[in-house]
Amino acid sequence: MKLPLTCFKCMDDKEQFMLDLLERKLYSVTINDSGIYKMTCDRGHTSYTMLQNEKFEILFDMGIYAFQDGYYRESISSFVASLERFYEYSIRLFCTINKIDDDVVSSTWKNVSAQSERQFGAYCFLYLLIMGEPPKVIANKYTTFRNKVIHKGYIPNENETVEYAKVIYDFIMNEIIKYQSKYGVYREEMTFKRLLRLHNEAQEGMFVNVATSCLSTSLSLTPPINQFPPFDEVIKNHRNEFK
């Protein structure tokens, strides 16, 4: 999966920037785990870009790309990872709402970082504490299906993959809408702090210009309240331009 970037130093040259726009000149870099991208353009300018999107957004789109290429097992693996990272995102949001320091959260997370069952347990009870109601959970049959694919080497077909992806998509989007409606300001705080951390990491002790980019993903973090496109529409409209 690729991230399209422009050279922000070239943008200072308005004439050259307009030519680049006419030529639709973009540079593509491979998505990485850090969220920081170093790029050198054709004119030798080196720039850094931070990706604003959350990891669960990226993983879900990786699942769609794999699905479109016919790699259904790999697609399921990405959707599973997306859900698990959404649980982590939720846990960190709930801790932010309770004004727990980020360093304390990260230190505590190390105790469960390698155990998805413990992460899910933490998610369930923090959800109950913050949202005031038991969390909706993925039906057992989909958990069984997930384990069959991930742990037993089962190769799913197209219909099974679409069904599983839709369940994950609907689950995450419904929760995002709840979070935004009730705790939108805390979500913005989380994003700001994460970008500030990435900015400091990108500078590496030196003063360098760091830009911010945000992909349009299937799991939009700013959906209209009570409304998001159905999954079949997401699949239909998804673009592979930078795959």
Give a description of the structure.
The protein is mainly alpha-helical and 243 residues long. The protein has a domain at 55-186: Four Helix Bundle (Hemerythrin (Met), subunit A). Helices cover 58% and strands 9% of the residues. It contains 8 helices and 5 strands. It has helices spanning 14-23, 55-68, 72-97, 102-109, 116-131, 140-152, 158-203, 231-237, and strands at 2-5, 27-30, 36-40, 46-51, 210-213. The strands form 2 sheets. Strands 3-4-5 form a 3-stranded mixed beta sheet, covered by helices on one side. A hairpin with a 5-residue loop joins strand 3 and strand 4. Helix 2 packs antiparallel against helix 3, helix 3 crosses helix 5 and helix 3 packs across helix 7. The longest helix is centred in the last third of the chain and has 46 residues, at 158-203. The protein is globular and about 55 Å long. The model has no long low-confidence stretch (mean pLDDT 89).
Task: Please outline what is shown here.
By secondary structure, the chain is mostly helical. Helix content is 58%, strand content 9%.
Spatial extent as radius of gyration:
19 Å
Please give the number of β-strands.
5
Shape: globular
Under the CATH scheme, which architecture of the domain at 55-186 would be assigned?
Up-down Bundle
Oligomer state of the chains in this structure: single chain
Report the average pLDDT across residues.
89
Give the secondary structure arrangement, pairings included.
Elements: E1 2-5, H1 14-23, E2 27-30, E3 36-40, E4 46-51, H2 55-68, H3 72-97, H4 102-109, H5 116-131, H6 140-152, H7 158-203, E5 210-213, H8 231-237
Parallel strand pairs: 4-5
Antiparallel strand pairs: 1-2, 3-4
Helix pairs in contact: 2-3, 2-7, 3-5, 3-7
